[in-house]
Task: structure prediction
Amino acid sequence: MLSVLSSAGRVPRRFSALRPVLSVLFVFSAVTLIFVVSRSADAQEVHYSQEDPKTELFINGVPFQAPLIDVPESATVVQEERMIEKGEINFQYEIEAIPNMMYSGATSRPRFLLIRGVGELEQYEGAPNPSVATIVDDIDFSGLGIIVPMFDIEQVEVLRGPQGVRFGSSALAGAINVRSHDATEFSTGRLQLMGGNDDLMSGGFAAGGAVPGSDGKLQLRVSAFASHSNGFRHNQYYDSYDTNDQNESILRLKLRYRQSARLTYDLNIFGTQASNGFDAFAIDNSRNTQSDRPGQDATQSRAAAFKITSRPTDTTKLEAITTAGRTRINYSFDGEWGNNPFWAPYDPYDYYSDSSRVRRMVAEELRWSSDDPLYEHGEKGRWLLGAYFQRLTEGTTTTESSNGEAYDFLKADYAANQGSVFGDLETPLGNGTSLSTGLRVEQRGTSYSDTNGSEFTPNYTMLGGAVTLQKDVTDSVRSYATVSRGYKGGGFNAGPSVQVEDRQYEPEYLWNFEVGVKGVFMRKRLETNLAVFHDLRRDTQLKFAIQDNPNDPLSFTYVTDSSGHGESTGMELENSFHATPWLDFFASGSLMTSEYTQVPGEAQYLEGRAFSYAPPYQYSAGFRSLLGGGAFLRIEETGKGSFYFDDSNDQKSTAYNLFNATLGWQSEGLQVLLWSRNLFNQVYAVRGFYFGNEPPDYPNKLYIQQGDPRAFGATVSYVF
Result:
């Protein structure tokens, strides 16, 4: 069935010795220095801290909108100020600080996301089947990554574990819910300018408020943002530093019309574009490339959402959400990563891959729920009923050429029709205790055809849900225990060399057993979010890349097999501590052990091995301190252990840690920031490949794509 190469022994099931996860010596040494500098600061100085537990965070991407502390699952909320202070214009950089979240590289921006080691590593075929849902202002972009820049984004919610009740088959591993700032009755806005090394330049403007003459009923918000950077690569063939450049922009309009206290209309329209080059692969695993045909990773998306919110009674709410989007992705790269002079005397050796994908999506969601203003957990119940319909089509065209002549062409058309009904019921048990039961039934029909003569029309009915017991330990501490089941649609292998019995594979299911506690302690100075989980993967979809011709670096067949099983056990912890009026600590991390317990016969090397992109530990720790006079300092370290790059081989990354620092000053609405990411210029990998690419013998070797080196710059913003 399969032919894959394995290069390492089986991984022990025990953790190796862990490094000092919270970097205690670093943090407390730095705190001592800050104390000396800051002891004269005014203890009553008013400030905003992203990690301040007094700032209540609400989560929208769950069946019942609720504060983070009341959501019975492992979740992280990243707010706007945190990303601004760290100089982040893309969510790529924040992923390093989120427990048990990873991304696979080989794209200009993260497109393939993983949570707890579950997710996709690539998509070279025209049949999307994501494991991590990505929702931007109610619009489904699953499988495309977080395609919007982070300007004017209110918060990003990361929900770990199956989200089948809320998002269905695209949320087997979890979900990312992105919320931009809504239109409001009050006039607000932001002006932001940023510059830095790598020729970074960006600027954004956002403003909103009530439309004059509308008596406050019609509200709007408009925002625009654009950025440019070179992409941290040096193409030595052209002696160019911008073949991997990133040129990204977004224009957004949000309108809200409050017809009455019981009826509201929301319209959200945006267009985003990333005209990015792609020249990230190097034969020597450096950031110095040799390609004579640099590629591109360009994305253009237009999307809209229209939402009607009605409150027919004082205790119920009806929502109808219509969404639509069109996304085009042009992805190309130099196939052998070099040029003929570089490969001499074995030239000509020249390959190029160019693909274009156009995705169209329309969806309708109906939600009817209780909305009792007198709701009290454990004393009153809540309920939700809903239905969801989506049609998604994707057309893919791929051309592969050698020495300037096309030798392989494929045009594929894919369509998926999805319909589901779902519900959630929270039953009060008294004494601050409740039992919630949620269920979702989904029917998913797909069709696929291509110019090689492949045709598939699989249909699946899938079932997911959750049962959760919650208990208020105190007024500010809640514990929970949940059992949830997520699902992901089956699919097909379209390669012409795939054997008949391997053409289709079944849906995957994930059982999540999780207990946790969330609360605030020490007179609201300490906020803690702890989750412990055990996950069982059934009919695990393992994807293998098989190089058909070692002389051709583009000749790969991709085969997914669903006969495997896997399991993982771990914990996720997030803490924030308001130590003094001028000093806040924050620390988060995760521990996880995972293994494939059953694998296809031809991939026995995987049995007992950890999942790909599932490091045994991840952490983030640091502090934010006021220095007086409006100045502040933020220091953060993130890190993770070694992880496997792929299911097709046993190649691993090395462990690494990154330091980030920000020195800022703010006075009323004005803020000036000096920031640096990867301050000590750590070399680390975001993707790894193991195949033959170097003539004349084409030995299998590990090639990695490096992450970004040290970045530094300045941000000036004004909020009004």
In short: The domain at 24-169+183-191+382-719 is CATH 2.40.170.20 (Maltoporin; Chain A).
